[in-house]
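Write out the 3D structure for:
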Amino acid sequence: MIDRLRYPLPFPDEPTYLILMIVYSLLCSAEHGFDAWFRNSAAFDAQAAGGAIACPICGDTGIRKALMAPAIRPSSKAAVTPTAEAIATPTAEVADHQAVAMQALREIRRKIEADCDYVGDNFAEEARKIHYGEVEAHGIYGESSEADREALAEEGIEVGRIPWVPLGN
């Protein structure tokens, strides 16, 4: 994952992606399905209510959780035989949606690399300099620890995490 300082925000319509612990299957109002990860249920609720989650297919921010089957671990004594359905390849529609999402993430990466400065492990320090006016405001990207991101948030410095996908197909 690559962190990106959202000050100034080079992508005004870009959703904030947080890839952490809970994965939800989501639907937009056009019934496009996609998955997203959240710190907890409250994080999803806050982001959905604030319009911070957008459909990767159409950009709609009217997002809701899709019905999901619970993940139930079988007992250690039960024999597990995967069904054909469980190991089937994605449908063409799902594969198309995944391809569109990956292409969108590649475009975001290209835009960030073209318009922002890579600061590597100095991300938190550089973000503070920009926030407190020690240097001219400009877009940056780099790496930071979870502790650094939490400290930045406590200081009111908004940063986001995005998946850093390979540029090739």
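DSSP finds five helices and seven strands in the chain.
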